[in-house]
Amino acid sequence: MNKSNSPGAMQYLCDRFDEFADMDRERNRLIIELLRKLADSETFIKQLQLDLEDQTRSRTSYQQDARDLQDKNRNWEQLINKDSFVAVLIDGDGAKFLDGLLQDPTVGAVEAASRLKQAVKDYLEATALAYMDLPVLVRVYANLNGLAKALRLSNVIEHDDNMQVFAETFTNSRWELDFVNVGHGKENADSKLRKMLNHFMKNIQCKRVFFAGCHDNSYLHDLREHAGDERVVLVETTAAEPGFRSLNLPITRFDNKGTRAGVDAVPKAGSIPSGGAAENYIIRICYTIVPFGGKRHSVRECSIPAQDSYSTKLDEIKPKVFCNKFYLTGTCTWGDKCDKDHSTELTPAELAIHRYKARTNLCGNGPDCYDYNCYMSHHCMYGPNCTRAPNCKFAKTQWGDLHLSKEDLKPATRWTEGEDTPKNLQ
């Protein structure tokens, strides 16, 4: 019997066939799985291609938009920088130009403008604006009549008109400069400065604002809004009050290699040097300082705000007037029977104004008075510069003409506070 036809052989062949059939099925499953994955991959690749094309289009669009924005930004920067400027705001009632410049108003005003502009440019040399040739807009706000009177009484200028000439020449010296007369009123200059500070800070073309008003704490509220902003530069004429230093704003003085720029303020009475000319400004009380063995220095301080408050208080007590004895010596022999006012409280600055007014009246003892506490005047306070002669009350008295010459005005004695008697200087 043939072995291949035996039942065992057939079973063997069937088993082998089943093995190969299983292998074919596994291979087919593998091929099907591979084909499915290939199809998925092709779909994914197509999606990636679509995404890539979309990203390419987007990137191209974004790049074009970016280039357009850069061009626009460059154009805006050019437009902004083309008309950029720096501003200088000066409270003319609290900061003045140097005496030497004011005394020759025509030439001094032009020199003041030049010095002020150069001082600003010197400051900008150390900033990112050094490469830009920026115009310097200067605005000085002051009560010109009050300022002129104060400077004349301080012997800084001879005539009130000198200040008017200085202001006009300063304004006309360059198109960027304005010396603005705001008229009488203690808030006029302050209000102008506050509004102009706000205006310039809102103007993106204004790169810096130099603010000369550190003598007046009333500006602190407005400056606090710009604390830490380097665009605001405080300019000292007197040492800045502590409140200004807490604002974290840059502070400068307009001094350049020892050459003083246009704006200055008078030092306090105790800081006047013993020799040489003192550069005066307006502060708040009137003194005359006579250094031993040196030249006579007049440091007149006239506070315009104090003048306003003094006038207001005087109006409130009319028809009464302030008692000279009570306010200037501390006692009044008439006491409660005095027909003059004792009740109003005067500030030190207002007392200084009242003392000045008392000095305009002639003492009953004239030049024969030896009372060192006398609050009246014994000669015309304007001396050889008096413009009222011959109608001045000191021109025709029982002692003759009480207008002293420059030689007469040389100090003969000095009485220092705290000493019992005066000392002879001649």
TrEMBL record:
<dbReference type="Pfam" id="PF25540">
    <property type="entry name" value="DUF7923"/>
</dbReference>
<keyword id="KW-0863">Zinc-finger</keyword>
<dbReference type="InterPro" id="IPR057683">
    <property type="entry name" value="DUF7923"/>
</dbReference>
<keyword id="KW-0479">Metal-binding</keyword>
<dbReference type="InterPro" id="IPR057654">
    <property type="entry name" value="Znf-CCCH_tandem"/>
</dbReference>
<keyword id="KW-0862">Zinc</keyword>
<dbReference type="Pfam" id="PF25543">
    <property type="entry name" value="zf-CCCH_tandem"/>
</dbReference>
<feature type="coiled-coil region">
    <location>
        <begin position="45"/>
        <end position="79"/>
    </location>
</feature>
<dbReference type="GO" id="GO:0008270">
    <property type="term" value="F:zinc ion binding"/>
</dbReference>
<keyword id="KW-0175">Coiled coil</keyword>
<protein>
    <submittedName>
        <fullName>C-x8-C-x5-C-x3-H type zinc finger protein</fullName>
    </submittedName>
</protein>
<feature type="domain" description="C3H1-type">
    <location>
        <begin position="317"/>
        <end position="345"/>
    </location>
</feature>
<dbReference type="InterPro" id="IPR000571">
    <property type="entry name" value="Znf_CCCH"/>
</dbReference>
<dbReference type="Pfam" id="PF25542">
    <property type="entry name" value="zf-CCCH_12"/>
</dbReference>
<feature type="zinc finger region" description="C3H1-type">
    <location>
        <begin position="317"/>
        <end position="345"/>
    </location>
</feature>
